[in-house]
Write a structure and sequence with these properties.
The chain contains 9 helices and 18 strands. The chain is α/β, with parallel strands linked by helices. InterPro entries: MeTrfase_TRM5/TYW2 (IPR030382), SAM-dependent_MTases_sf (IPR029063), TRM5-TYW2-like_MTfase (IPR056743), TRM5/TYW2-like_N (IPR056744), Trm5a/b_N (IPR040601).
Amino acid sequence: MTVPCVRVAREAGEETRQALAELDVLDESHDITVEDGWLYVPVADPPAVPETYDVVEFDAPARERQTRPVDLLGYEPSYERLGDIVILDEDDPDRARDIADAVMASDLRAKTVVNRASPIEGELRVREWDVLAGDGTETVHREYGCSFALDIATVYFSPRLATERHRVTEQVRDGERFFDMFAGVGPFAVPAAKRGAEVVGVDLNPAAVAYLRENAERNGVADRVTAIEGDVRDVVAGSSGARASDGVGGTVEEYDGWADRLVMNLPHSAGEFLDTAVALAGDECVLHYYDIQHDSDPFGPGEAAIREAAGEAYEVEVLTRRVVRSYAPHEENVCLDVRLTR
């Protein structure tokens, strides 16, 4: 008997499963199945599945009963998975400990269970964690055919943005010059390089830059990725405070007017770097600008800031206005895709 399934390429399986789990549309009574290079993920509520996914009928086998955290706790706990780390956000330490024990005793694949111990803090955007079970905060996360080593204690990474990163990097053309102004461990930079782009990634966090270099090697694109540790504003200014790695490109001063595509994924603060973005832009450049604004006008402030920074030097064409996710009550995390033409 067939059941509705989301059909995706095998390499996109885990991030698809995570995305569908967040939407609470997974069919837990049938197994995820691989056939002819495709992965079939059973779904219980096909109308609730986003249109970006391909929903088909498939003869997925009924699942044999596995022990889940809910079976041990008597209630469904809330958690997030990043590689083989399970992440909790519990205020009650006793409840957090109970959930951690249930996760480790269940059939869920987990090496470590952590609980958020602080908000994201500082210019390096990291948080503190309570390790409740297991050992260590380093893992390898996979999405859309790429793998990323990272340590959640020293770098920022959000698996919830996998679909958005894929949307952007799918637009990259072979030979394009791609500049990620706040690159982190490389979730934009590495897949862009895999599509044939020449990539420069900059980040203030030395741990993130080290992982960016490792992840470029891990994914076979080290020859197309230049990692720079420092403030991206120094890349244009030619400051000695920014340090370039071995790889594509030369001194940091050479990136003025260089980019065909720019990613500015630093919500709350990206507007402070728009003058730098304009300086980095080539004669024609697509800018992916991320912002967090009140839902009464989520795009207006960002668009106005981009037009002001571009001044008379560039024509500004807004290609896409996209709500990425809800950030907080009445606040939206949005992206503006903008073409700058000199």
